[in-house]
């Protein structure tokens, strides 16, 4: 999170766009969260940063639909459910350049991948998003279309049922 806040402060210094950063506090370490809040204060960006607490899962689509971009730059990750959910809501992503994301996200096609632990690259990604709103919307739609193809609950359930039926037929 500190990397995102640092990059966001740099982004604000380089753009005239009015932007906000919403920070979810889901599973946040209280001491680390306090450090982040102090960092926001020291960087004097409080008016542009809003801490929204722990968002109930049922309300996440509302937040995704409000967002132009979702930013997630962990050091490691599997394939988080939140990536599928936010892509299904048609949100563009700035993500850490992790192999686990390659199946769904192609750089500057339906998302933006940045090197891990690189606040300069993250700032550039934020600025790119602000400077390319049309491309951002098109890319977000591509991401939505893709996730609806590869992670559609009804399609995947039918696929699993077909596999089970085939196995049952082999042993009956």
Structure description:
With 172 residues, this protein is mostly helical. The chain has one domain (2-170): 3-Layer(aba) Sandwich (Rossmann fold). The chain has helices at 2-14, 30-42, 60-66, 81-88, 119-131, 133-150, 153-170; strands at residues 21-23, 49-51, 69-72, 92-96, 112-114. A 3-stranded parallel sheet has the order 3-4-5, sandwiched between helices. A two-stranded parallel ribbon has the order 1-2. Strand 3 (69-72), helix 4 and strand 4 form a beta-alpha-beta unit. Helix 1 runs parallel beside helix 2 and helix 4 (81-88) packs across helix 6. The relative contact order is 0.13. The mean pLDDT is 91.
List keywords for this structure.
5 strands, 172 residues, Rossmann fold, three-stranded parallel sheet, elongated, mainly alpha, two-stranded parallel sheet
